[in-house]
Amino acid sequence: SAARRSSIPPTPTSWWSRRARFGPMSPAAKRQGRILALPLLAVLLGGPALSTWRLRQRTEGHLAFASAFAHAYALLVVCNLVDLLVIDYLLLVRLRPSFAVLPGTAGMAAYDDLGFHVTGFGKGLGFGLVPSAAIAWFASRRHAISGPDSKGAAG
Q: Which of 56, 51, 81, 72 has its CA nearest to residue 133?
């Protein structure tokens, strides 16, 4: 994604060349990045968590860790795949609208580097394991926190 691309360079030399060409991020740009990252994380983690919790409710609380993990991880992989194919490849590599090109960096070979995006996809696959495991652990617990309408809730 664009947020990941702005913080994780493909190689140290390309980071330095981009920084030398474009300059460091302004405090306003850093603040904007943090502000945009919070809702994105909420959706990326909250969506699979809510969906897995609803799966638990549909199974009347009998959700195995492996099933919960597979469900949460599959949702994160789909998000990562959409990021790779739609945002990274189609929008940034093929169409490359002017708003996606940093001032002073037009024509840089890095914009055509599909390997960078595929590497980011691979990292996303790895990074998705921990939140998926956490979501699965909470959703598959025998005495998981239940909603007010759940059977057997203390009342």
A: 72
